[in-house]
Design a protein that fits this description.
Layout: E1 3-4, E2 9-10, E3 15-16, E4 21-26, E5 33-39, E6 51-52, E7 59-65, H1 67-73, E8 87-93, E9 99-100
Parallel strand pairs: 1-9
Antiparallel strand pairs: 1-6, 2-3, 4-5, 4-7, 7-8
Amino acid sequence: MGQLTTHVLDISSGQPAAGIRIEVHELTAASPVLLTSTATGKDGRCAHPLLAGAAFRVGRYTMTFYLAEYFRTRGVALPEPAFIEDAVIRIGIAHAEQHYH
């Protein structure tokens, strides 16, 4: 079976982005369904795939990266509201047997 993974880099510091909260929602006809909520580790990767096994299936999803929260916890002074509060990426899984990264 396939899986969904990610790797986040903090280009402002040139380092992996440790501690970014990520949520994955499945986009259903009724309303988005939260499938997972996790955070990146010290290498900028999650300890486990965002989706794998039975949860990894053909469909449409969003991945939300909480960027302002990440920078604020590191003491970066951001305006209120921040220019980019979070980044939402809409993805489609067409082949459940593949690895999407």
